[in-house]
């Protein structure tokens, strides 16, 4: 049961370095002892199966130990996503009935004596809640059971599909930043440890500086950061000779941009597709069929209904925490409805063609257009509000708002952006707010948001031909 493979790996790792933070190097034996201490402290405070813990931790060895210990104790673990508005944080803690653990709490737990540790989780119990932005404006939690996490490929070399087996050979020094609670950051971190690599904390996480300073061989990178890295390498090249793999996540990566990255950085870009609800769905080898998102591993099932992709993976989430209505929409008879439009070609490669839902992916964070539109429309100077997503070199995609003014009023873009940030968080803030006389109508007579999405906007490239805008 999860996280037994990680505990076994660390218990037998001896003096092998597993976490590096500046001059501090933590061995496998030391990390195992830290996990044992935190697990003892959690159990002393009554935490075990059925109890909820919300983690808001930095990027350090203590954070990794606390995360693994929370799973070892069998608790229900959720990581606090960055950029939450205060009301959203309060909502999350109340909804999950979770106790917040921050860096200071983790330090106190590490003072306990190291006791025995084993995986206490029960298969049907929820092991992890991964929060994303929800369609109502509140975070939406993907609930993954201990059985599902135990079915993950990361700590089991025998389960690695070919592309993951190749990636594993490049994870000698895996750069970690942002949050170790991130689904992607933790999953590839476990893969790196299983492959014999070391997790290296990036302070600060600046690119390409962090790659050079830490002699990193691999890391996760968002589409926006990848664009910035490519630009920097064209104008002021850094020594990236140590870098062997960049796993691109979060937003759609246009084929032309992927080809440019491969041309500038070399064959190190692993481009894939996944969702919080499913984990990895497919991935390509560097340079392999850049117009696709690769082929799914043999354990992943795909089904396409009316152009919409449904997916079934061994480690997928089971439902949305305390949200039966949305769960019924997405988790259907054992399948996850991705709400993405896709086709499979004759060679089994997956092609994405846009979305059947009104969302924008900003720095790997799912942002729903509806709550932003409703919030903008509460301003007395706004009669109507419409939100679209556009490709963006900094964030992968960016939010853009169009507002129709109320009679005799003049909307204030700065005030509108502040209004959104205060209630929905930084990821939802529009990059631009454009005042329009009226929204163009579609042939159906409804507002044509697709027409708004292809209008010329400052600082936003045009929508990719052939791909429906968000």
Automatic annotation (TrEMBL):
Annotated stretches, region: Disordered: 437-470
Keyword terms, alphabetized: Ligase
Record-annotated membrane-spanning stretches: none
GO molecular function per UniProt: acid-thiol ligase activity
Stretches assigned to the AMP-binding enzyme C-terminal domain: 372-446
Cross-referenced Gene3D superfamilies: 3.30.300.30, N-terminal domain of ligase-like (3.40.50.12780)
Residue stretches of biased makeup (Pro residues): 459-470
Top-level taxon in the UniProt lineage: Bacteria
Residue ranges of every copy of the AMP-dependent synthetase/ligase domain listed in the record: 14-100, 121-315
Protein name: Acyl-CoA synthetase (AMP-forming)/AMP-acid ligase II
């Amino acid at each position: 049961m999860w996280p037994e493979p990680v505990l076994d790996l660390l218990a037998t790792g001896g003096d092998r370095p597993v976490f590096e933070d500046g001059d501090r190097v933590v061995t496998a034996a030391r990390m195992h002892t830290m996990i044992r201490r935190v697990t003892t402290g959690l159990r002393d405070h009554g935490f075990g199966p059925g109890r909820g813990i919300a983690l808001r931790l930095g990027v350090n060895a203590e954070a990794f130990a606390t995360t693994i210990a929370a799973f070892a104790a069998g608790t229900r673990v959720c990581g606090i996503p960055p950029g939450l508005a205060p009301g959203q944080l309060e909502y999350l803690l109340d909804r999950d009935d979770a106790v917040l653990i921050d860096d200071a709490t983790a330090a106190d737990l590490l003072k306990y004596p190291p006791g025995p540790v084993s995986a206490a989780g029960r298969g049907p119990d929820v092991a992890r809640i991964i929060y994303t932005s929800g369609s109502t404006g509140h975070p939406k939690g993907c609930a993954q059971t201990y059985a599902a996490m135990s079915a993950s490929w990361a700590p089991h070399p025998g389960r690695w599909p070919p592309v993951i087996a190749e990636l594993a050979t490049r994870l000698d020094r895996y750069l970690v930043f942002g949050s170790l609670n991130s689904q992607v950051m933790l999953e590839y971190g476990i893969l790196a440890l299983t492959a014999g690599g070391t997790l290296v904390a990036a302070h600060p996480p600046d690119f390409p500086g962090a790659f050079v300073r830490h002699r990193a061989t691999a890391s996760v990178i968002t589409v926006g950061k990848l664009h910035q890295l490519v630009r920097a390498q064209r104008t002021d090249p850094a020594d990236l000779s140590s870098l062997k793999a960049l796993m691109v996540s979060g937003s759609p990566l246009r084929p032309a941009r992927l080809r440019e990255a491969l041309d500038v950085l070399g064959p190190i870009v692993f481009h894939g597709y996944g969702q919080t609800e499913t984990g990895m769905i497919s991935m390509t080898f560097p340079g392999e069929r850049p117009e696709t998102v690769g082929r799914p591993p043999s354990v992943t099932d795909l089904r396409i209904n009316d152009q919409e992709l449904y997916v079934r993976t061994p480690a997928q989430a089971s439902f949305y925490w305390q949200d039966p209505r949305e769960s019924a929409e997405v988790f259907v008879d054992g399948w996850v409805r991705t709400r993405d439009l896709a086709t499979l070609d004759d060679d089994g490669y997956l092609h994405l063609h846009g979305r059947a839902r009104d969302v924008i992916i900003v720095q790997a964070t799912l942002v729903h257009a509806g709550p932003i539109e409703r919030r903008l429309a509460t301003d007395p100077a706004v009669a109507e509000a419409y939100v679209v997503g556009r490709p963006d070199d900094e964030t992968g995609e960016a939010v853009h708002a169009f507002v129709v003014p109320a009679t005799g009023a003049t909307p204030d873009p700065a005030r509108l952006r502040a209004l959104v940030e205060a209630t929905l968080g930084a990821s939802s803030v529009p990059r631009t707010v454009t005042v329009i006389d009226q929204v163009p109508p579609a042939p159906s007579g409804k507002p044509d948001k697709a027409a708004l999405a292809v209008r010329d906007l400052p600082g936003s490239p045009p929508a990719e031909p052939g791909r429906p805008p968000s």
